[in-house]
Design the sequence.
């Protein structure tokens, strides 16, 4: 009988430890998701109370915006000419960060534009410098290299899952 109680205690301690780790992982995921969304939104949409992901999602809904994950084929179809199109900056940001999360408005346009990038990232940010300030100096080879990096990163993530 004592052996069963010891095993039950060990099981409970192990289960509690696993639950704590899972809760920590969920918190990290929510913080990461929140930060990824906030970086793509205009300052007037984000409020101080949008600290947790649920308030943030409610705020997105209130402003007729939502987040989604971009199909990799959409990123593969980006061309050097898309650097001149403000509506493609969100897609270029996904490509640049190797992250498919994209925030769209109710008309399916990205919320990330040059004004939002300047406000949220600043003038010294690498993405701002590459895709806004010096976009005329970007080459097709650079864009193709970014696409290859994105594809490789996504494959590594799939293998690790």
Sequence:
């Amino acid at each position: 009988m004592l052996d069963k109680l010891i095993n039950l205690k060990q099981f409970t301690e192990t289960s509690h430890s696993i639950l704590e780790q899972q809760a920590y992982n969920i918190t990290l995921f929510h913080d990461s998701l929140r930060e990824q969304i906030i970086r793509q939104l205009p300052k007037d949409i984000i409020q101080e109370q949008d600290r947790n992901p649920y308030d943030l999602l409610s705020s997105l809904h209130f402003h007729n915006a939502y987040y989604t994950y971009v199909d990799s084929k959409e990123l593969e179809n980006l061309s050097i000419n898309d650097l001149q199109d403000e509506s493609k900056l969100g897609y270029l940001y996904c490509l640049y960060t190797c992250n498919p999360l994209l925030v769209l408005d109710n008309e399916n346009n990205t919320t990330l534009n040059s004004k939002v990038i300047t406000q949220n990232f600043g003038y010294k940010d690498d993405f701002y410098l590459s895709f806004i300030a010096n976009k005329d100096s970007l080459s097709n080879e650079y864009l193709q290299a970014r696409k290859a990096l994105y594809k490789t990163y996504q494959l590594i993530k799939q293998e690790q899952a």
